[in-house]
Amino acid sequence: MTQNKIQLMSLSTALLLVAGCTPSADISASTNLTDYTGTGSITQGLAKTIESNLFECKNGRSRVASIGEITDSEGKVWTVPATNHFMTAPKAVDLYEECANITPQSLADVDQASVPVAVIDADGEEITGYIFADNYFELYINGTLVAVDTVPFTPFNSSIVKFKVNKPYTIAVKVIDWEENLGLGTEDNRGKAYHPGDGGFIASFSDGTVTGPDWQAQTFYTAPIYDLSCLSEENGKRLSTTCSTDGTDSGENAYAAHWEVPSHWMKQEFDSTSWPQASSYSEDDIGVNNKKSYMNFIDKFSGAGASFIWSTNVVLDNEVLLRYEVK
Description:
- This protein is mostly beta strands and 327 residues long.
- It has a domain at 49-219 and 274-327.
- It has helices spanning 3-18, 283-286, 292-295; strands at residues 41-44, 48-51, 67-71, 77-80, 93-96, 117-119, 125-133, 136-141, 144-148, 158-165, 169-176, 186-189, 192-196, 201-205, 216-225, 232-234, 237-239, 255-258, 279-281, 308-310, 317-326.
- The strands form 6 sheets. It has a 7-stranded antiparallel sheet, with no helix packed on it. Strands 5, 6, 7, 10 and 14 form a 5-stranded mixed sheet that branches. A 3-stranded antiparallel sheet has the order 2-3-4, with no helix packed on it.
- A hairpin with a 2-residue loop joins strand 8 (136-141) and strand 9.
- The longest helix has 16 residues, at 3-18.
- The relative contact order is 0.20.
């Protein structure tokens, strides 16, 4: 730990106390960076908003999907909740999306023939994918960005994609659990101003590929953290299993942990052998039993044998990269 880091934290803590920004009585925040011994970079407090809202709901309400930047003690700038291609990449076709007034009761009401096909290999097999993400996904096949989610935050939607590819091929997905309080991993929810949300990703493909614990999942942004000593690393896993997931009304001084995303993480040749296996979650864990965007097409999700997956912490890990090789 450098002297500069310790001095910066002392100054930061003093300023927070002067401003009255103390942790809530039920959540105790550590006040020294030396409590953290992992490989990530630590930031504290609210990020600066650089994009006020990526998405406007034309038919109902949606949470504000902002983008922010925050600087760590060594001067590195981190984008939160994550860098993404929402504004520039091709969008997936909606199975169900309330803001666009796309609300079919079942797959029988969806015009699947009109879904465009992304061509990876001209002589490849045409594959259809059915995707539900909490909140946002970007899908790569052999390093090619095939489609991104049409809704970055809420309301919850589901998607359909098509692509042509030869086996073996690699699926790589960036998933983001969006946040209202940028840099803090929280939103106004359940009666608390700073409540961590949860993630979740499930997909099935027409060639029989489904999400499950045989996929890989690595964490790149974890927040909120109120006690840095709760973070640990083991066998490639970036763990926060003992960290608090409680909401609070005084979470503005929370910490966050960030890891650099490899530039070629989505490529077929990328070596992900050090990444941990994905963790599986139930439909009850993710809370989809009241979401029509999922339940109306459940036959293509859990009904097809797919499981919800994420990293080891579906609540605190906000940017996760997934990989799977289809043989």
